[in-house]
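Example 368.
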Amino acid sequence: MEIMDKNEELRCIGCGAVIQTEAPKELGYLPQAALDKKTEDNAVYCQRCFRLRNYNEIAPTSLTDEDFQKLLLKIGQKNALVVNVVDIFDLNGSMIPDLQKYVGKNDILVVANKLDVLPHSLNPAKLTKWVEKQMKAIGLKTKAVLVMSAKREYDIYELLELVATYKKNRDVYIVGVTNVGKSTLTNAIIKYETGMADLVTTSRFPGTTLDQIELPLNDDTVLIDTPGIIHKGQMAHYLSPEDLKLVSPKKEIKPKTWQLNPDQTLFLGGLARFDFVSGSKQGFTTYFDNELSIHRTKLEGADEFYQKHAGELLVPSVSKDLVRHEFNIKTKSDIVVAGLGWICVAEKSTVVAWAPAGVDVLVRKALV
Ligand SMILES: Nc1nc2c(ncn2[C@@H]2O[C@H](COP(=O)(O)OP(=O)(O)OP(=O)(O)O)[C@@H](O)[C@H]2O)c(=O)[nH]1
Ligand SMILES: [Mg+2]
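Predicted structure in complex with magnesium ion:
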């Protein structure tokens, strides 16, 4: 695959940063000796991508929210097809409320990614309807919604059919908040079309892709992966790289049901807490990464329990205090902690949810 024109600046094929050999701590750094070894097709990876790809080591970046937003605003000025990737496990945390503003008059397809982590008993057609409704609620006019898994390479063919239908000679931009799987999707498409696997750098850390990555797919289509927008309401932004591993589900979530009496508390590691304040004894079902440890205690001693055990029995934890959110539940509902998961409350009750300051906590009609 020809990656770029000879007279354009050289970019890292993994993250899109402009390659430079002067400043090791800046984006796009590659030692001169490594650059000298580049192959004919100009496919080079910067040092940050090399470390990310080979050792799963993340180097901090200096990009700001504004840099990402500027990039997206540019898309609105182009004539393009926009594929907005959202994370179906964290739909509210991954929707971009003002996306329509960014993309202007361009057509939008929505990919609700990471279907593989939801319980497989959930009906994809029902999930599609749910995503469609949520998109409508934020005023996004979509041509189609596709629920899929980029990592498992489910439904790539269906997506390409949709792209072919709506593309109309335009470039295709993949956009979304960080970590939803835009680059994983880009790779799955490239693999489907060319056989080349794992071209662009992906990682579990938010902020992997740093600039637009233009990939000619065939004679008349250019696919463009973009850096993710930072949505501060997502749990991922408050966790260390190590802890992130413990909360991002990699495979199907196994729900667990807890028979609770009022005045009992569940701790989700040290990251969130649910207090069953009032209501009749009932089953609460938790939907979190299978690796996240859940502890049941008495509500009465819960504050003390947290003070004593956060960071050891209750891991992972954050240095910030947890903030209180009270919900009066009338019918079967989910209380969602953005990016972490949710608890399904079956019957009328009062529940208090605690999460780190800044992390979104919301209630919705039960998904399951
Ligand atoms: N389970 C599951 N994980 C996925 C899927 N797609 C992506 N991931 C994981 O999600 C994490 C983020 O993936 P990326 O492709 O780097 O996400 P991105 O949207 O490009 O992120 P930025 O470049 O930071 O904006 C990685 O750990 C991926 O393995 C999927 O379909 N299922
Ligand atoms: Mg990316």
